[in-house]
Design brief:
single chain; about 220 residues; mainly alpha; Fumarate Reductase Cytochrome B subunit; two-stranded antiparallel ribbon; about 5% strand
Length: about 220
């Protein structure tokens, strides 16, 4: 049974740079999705009016998408999270195959296999959309056949990414603690032990080690 103090205890899950990268990228992505819907759905385009302005907003927000991801590399905590996301282990495969993956039996690290796949697919889709968008927009750089192919790829990848984003938002809304962590950076210890037990144990061990070191430092 957990102690009352443990029930109130919180762990730092996301640092400020990580939260800013996530927030800016999400804002740019939502603008791209909204403007894409306006450009492709005629009835909405008629209501909005100025198609050229919408197209320019869509293009430049799309070109800006990699910027927060690249600037975030200046942060050690952001780079550490990227390394975790890029590491797929045997436990992740077990988590994907398990029907009871959230019962706490599998020692999940800071990110579960679903979050790692979502990050990889999102990054790959952004890269494809960026390259195909450049081919489509800068018409003087490529042949017509290339632009036709780029348009086909851009449309279908954009649809896939839109569905991925919707699924991501739905899962986030269903988990208020995870959603709060992207705003405050902190999560309750009990939530971490239920959803990411290996990471919770790692964080608690680090805190114990720090507590053991601090008295020595203060005595000097």
């Amino acid at each position: 049974m957990s102690r009352p103090a443990d029930r109130r205890r919180e762990l730092l899950r996301f640092t400020r740079p990580v939260r800013w990268v996530h927030a800016v990228t999400a804002a740019l992505l939502f603008v791209c999705i909204a403007t894409a819907a306006i450009l492709y759905i005629g009835s909405i385009a008629v209501l909005v009016g100025d198609r050229y302005v919408i197209e320019q907003v869509h293009v430049w927000c799309g070109l800006a998408l990699p910027v927060p991801l690249i600037v975030g590399l200046l942060s050690p905590s952001y780079r550490a999270d990227l390394r975790r996301l890029n590491r797929f282990t045997r436990r992740d495969w077990r988590w994907l195959r398990s029907r009871s993956r959230r019962d706490g039996q599998i020692m999940v690290g800071k990110f579960n296999a679903g979050q790692k796949l979502n990050a990889a697919l999102s990054l790959g889709a952004i890269g494809v959309l960026l390259m195909s968008g450049v081919v489509m927009y800068f018409t003087h750089l490529t042949r017509l056949s290339w632009r036709s192919g780029a348009t086909f790829v851009h449309d279908w990848v954009a649809l896939a990414l839109g569905l991925l984003v919707i699924g991501h938002v739905m899962y986030a809304v269903r988990d208020p603690e995870a959603l709060r962590s992207m705003r405050t950076g902190r999560v309750p210890l009990r939530w971490a032990q239920r959803e990411h037990l290996a990471w919770a144990d790692e964080m608690c061990a680090d805190e114990v080690e720090q507590d053991q070191v601090d008295p020595v430092d203060s005595a000097r």
